[in-house]
Amino acid sequence: MIERTKCFLLSFVSAFFLLSLIVMAAVLWVKPVSRPQSAPSPSVPPYLPQAEDSFTILLSERSSDDTPLFFLLIGFQPHRGQIPFAVFPPELSLSVENSQTLREQYKNGGICAVRDALSEQLSAPIDHWAEISEADFSELIDLFAPVSLNLPQSFQYKQGDLSVTLQPGLQSIDGAKALHLMSAPWGSSQAQQRFLEELVEKWLYQYLRIVQTNQSQDYFQKMVNKMETDLSILDYSSYHPMLLFLSRLSRQPLSCYRLSTPIPAKGSLLLSEKEAHLLSKVFSS
Asked: What does pLDDT average to over the chain?
């Protein structure tokens, strides 16, 4: 009985020892399966501003009877770090040889005729055009946010059955107020021109802020949908890196180029050779 017990214990210990050796050999000899590592996401190269990325657009706002209220020329120039713009009244004639006003050019051939005439006179390419109605321009201002402007005088207008008064000084201007101010009696064409220039500058500044957000593409599409234009949503991917670069500059890239000749209340205004040369230099990429 004792001998059988000894044999059983010896067999058990030997079997346990042999099993331990087998397990150790399996652990040492079998190579561990390595988990596949995910490939690092490709880094987006930094945007380098190039002259060929520049583009210029001519925008016209038209009234309810389809006559132009003003023409806006905007240049996006990343290689210069600038966004120059100029507001032209419809009464502007480009030269003595081309004595037709922009209003007459528009009446004869639409926005494209004005684009071609401006491009030829300034010796600067105008890549895109856009037209927008008064109502849609008002909605475009509301699409971003109201802008703050200093009014030099008080204005009154009717809003339904209510009489609204805007006092002189800093005012928050939404789309509805802008619509009334653009057709309000300013006392001088020069004052109305300055208002338009300040309104456009604040509007462009609001858009540059939107460019830096996740809603940038959505806002671009909404703008394009409110205009008659040769731009499309497909242009967004081409222009967005350049616009984002300009929006992140530490200094303000926007600069307004004003006509030095006083704008007459009636009649036409002739673009001087000096002004044409300056605008050509500014808007040539």
From this structure: 84
Residue 124 has pLDDT above 50, yes or no: yes
Rounded Cα distance, 72 and 63, in Å: 15
Token pair belonging to 259: 């006509």
The token pair at 98 is 């081309």
φ/ψ (deg, to 5) at 146 = -60, 150
pLDDT at 255 over 90: yes
State how far the Cα of 20 lies from the Cα of 149, in Å rounded to an integer. Answer: 86
Rg (CA), the chain: 34
Residue 27: band (very low, low, confident or very high) from pLDDT cuts 50, 70, 90: very low
Instruction: Report which of residues 140 and 33 the model is more confident about.
Output: 140
Does the reported pTM lie above 0.85?
no
Q: Cβ contacts of residue 57 below 8 Å, gap of 6+?
A: 73, 74, 76, 126, 127, 128, 129, 130, 231
**Regarding beta strands 128-133 and 55-62, do their DSSP bridges make them parallel or antiparallel, or are they unpaired?**
parallel
Q: Cβ(201)–Cβ(85) under 8 Å?
A: yes
> CB under 8 Å to 87, separation ≥6 — which residues?
70, 71, 72, 193, 196, 197, 200, 256
Could you identify the residue written with the tokens 């880094």? Answer: 43
